[in-house]
Design brief:
Layout: H1 3-14, E1 29-35, H2 47-58, E2 68-74, H3 82-91, E3 96-100, H4 102-111, E4 117-121, E5 142-146, H5 149-163, E6 169-174, H6 176-192, E7 196-201, H7 208-217, E8 222-225, H8 229-233, H9 235-244, E9 249-251, H10 254-258, E10 263-267, H11 269-284, E11 300-305, H12 306-311, H13 318-321, E12 326-328
Parallel strand pairs: 1-2, 1-3, 3-4, 4-5, 6-7, 6-8, 8-9, 9-10, 11-12
Antiparallel strand pairs: 10-11
Helix pairs in contact: 2-11, 3-4, 5-6
Length: 329
Amino acid sequence: MDRRVFLGVLASLVSGAGVGETQSTDHLSRVGHLAIAGTTSTPQPPSANWDAFIAGLRETGYIEGRNFVFEHRDAGNRPELFPAAAADLVRARVSVIFARGPQAVRAARQATKTIPIVAIDLETDPVAAHFVKSLSQPGGNVTGMFLDLAELSGKHIQLFKELLSRLSQVAVLGDPEVNRSQMQATAAAGRQLDIRVDVIEIRQAKEIDDAFRAASQARVGAVVVLSNPLGLAYRVTIAKLAIQYRLPTMFIYRFHVDAGGLLSYGPSLPAMFHRCGGYVARILAGSKPAEMPIERPSTFELVINLKTAKALGLTIPPSLLVRADQLVE
């Protein structure tokens, strides 16, 4: 055989380019993905968030299967399984963990102090939770997107006051393990506007009905449903109960309004996921999370469900209608 032909065949075999062979991905960086549910195949909900995350990676040159692969782990809608899922990612020797939600972030932080963690968390104060030393200089292995809870909670109360001019009492529904900071921020915002805030704790799905019954019996004028995995999973049930008890509801996530809730005001989740994709890409390229400032979302959306407003007998003021980013009819 001609020497050049022989060397060409040998190089082909060594590179794994033989006919019918699949190239190994063992040499590629591994990106851990930790979420409450749905990550073993297509992450849900909603797919737009995941698409935005992938776009953030692609824009900086990172494409799944070419220069990295995913290691997906989820808690199967059971938050108590997060520690085991996070530990499994550590054993998989991932280069970075993308943690979605407060319980995922907490579990990842407990599982490793060395593997970089990119967080998207709308419920936690990262400094108070000791995830980071400061927003500008995190100083550890956690960075990403966190929400300014006090500012958002104040806006929720203000929007309710604009909708219901005689509002004097609001109920706040949430899980104290996840929403403690939100509960405190909402109570503080209520005091500034002379509105009483009653906190009603929900830890399990079976407590949701009781919570709305309690809010109705307390004669509150409106309900703020805080963001947490339980509320997201049972958003349709919550929307139906709100109409049953004739209680206007406010949420952070717009897909609560798509499910029948009245109002949502919060950050654009696709925009936050897009930024997180960029964070992961920078870490894969060598950046250190300790030196990557925590970011706050800059784009916020007001969504109003007009059908729900009609069912509750409410007239939405023109001042809110013109500011709404979307009206659900």
